[in-house]
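REQUEST FORM: STRUCTURE PREDICTION
Request ID: SP-0412
Submitted by: Lab K.M.
Chain count: 1
Length (residues): 507
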Amino acid sequence: MTAAEARISPLSVVIVGGGTAGWMTAAALARLIGNSCIVQVVESEEIGIVGVGEATLPHLRGFNARLGIDEADFMRATSATFKLGIEFVDWARTGDRYLHPFARFGRDANGVGFHHLWTRALHRGLVPGPLDAFCLPAAMARGNRFAHPAQDDRRIEAGYGYAYQFDATRFAPYLRGIAEAAGAVRTEGRVVDAERHPETGDVSALILADGRRIIGDLFIDCSGFRALLVDGAMGEPFEDWSAWLPCDRAVALPCRTTQALTPYTSAYAMAAGWRWRIPLQHRTGNGYVFASAFIDEQAATDALLGAIEGAPLAEPRVLRFKAGRRRRAWVGNCIAIGLSGGFLEPLESTSIYLIQAAITALLELFPEGSGSPVERDAFNRTLDLEYARIRDFLILHYHATDRADSAFWDYVRTMPIPDSLVERIALFRARGRIEPHAQGLFLEPSWLAVLIGQGVLPRDHDVRADMMADADLAAALREMRDRIAATSDGMAPHGDYVADYCPAGLA
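STATUS: Completed
RESULT:
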């Protein structure tokens, strides 16, 4: 049989677990390559999802667009708000705050990045504001404003990214409707075991609690932290990164919203970790991500209850996890997507992105059968890069700090860090250079926002930034800052924009 003839028979893909990872995967496969596969999702109503409210990255817009999802409809269904970036409070030192926006800073000149001009001005006492004063979405976030980016690239209102803050408990059911409409089939049942082929070691069938057998060609493990297939059946080792990312607990609860509906997620440094605030249309999500070696669960819960803005809408919920990932995400004919494949704390809202990255890699490397070693290796290399680069970016937030006011902050400030991050910080400190890379999530603007926000400043700048006279540079920076501020001030308040564009009601 030729390869072309083999493709006549669609591949049977069995997804273990629903939730965000399972239904994102099912929707993408059924909608985008449904002629090449039969998609079945096996999930149990007895098992809840981890979702506690979700902040995302701009990449989700591209995923939704590929599935033909209407933005306003999606936002209404999930009580979503817009997100222009992440605000960090008290991270470098108590009293500091900065924003990581989804956009570039300023305008490049003479072939050199804007931050070199800003650094030169800073060293000479000319700079008229912090780095994020030269970024339109950062100004919008500060003023609680929002507008969709302009389509004309010549306008200042063009070229920035945005994401969503939404109710994760509503996202999976929304995607389920899309997946089933595209042909995916849901099977209710709790997986208790997996049969493996005696010769290849591949998974050949799932065994459900009621005795049913679910056979397939390719099995996707979206079972969350339980990792039923990649760990339980395949025994793939877990790489523990908790020495660098020691937070291993989170206590979460929603509350009534009493503050402005901000177009950004907030991350407040706490004594043994950090606290999130995610504003949705119908409530505000809150959580304290902490290291249990430095604080117990009750003390963390009390700290969170004392910090939230409004009356709690549910009982506190404690989640336990460990930072790290499976050595291989694709093993045999089993692919781990989502929490089964690894976990990196939600400091930069990367969880859904990592699901999306795995789905994208699977679509690009979709096999004819259970998969060849070449396809598996390529998939695993892609995920290796994604996880490692996000890991380093998260470690930077903790390590680049002057805080030593608690045992937790003293530990992360002084802990050894990966050589890859040591080298990146040293390169930036020397002359403001950031090593470029073609793959991976966070690019130069993101590293700039966090490096400078955490107090890592270059000692010098690119020589090409010296072409402008001091007076001209200072005037250009003032004009840029003022124009950005005026443009932001002319936009609608974020809450009004959401109420007009995608009101979800109070359900």
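NOTES: The chain has three domains: 7-53+167-239+325-389, 82-165+418-494, 249-320.
Reviewed by: T.R.
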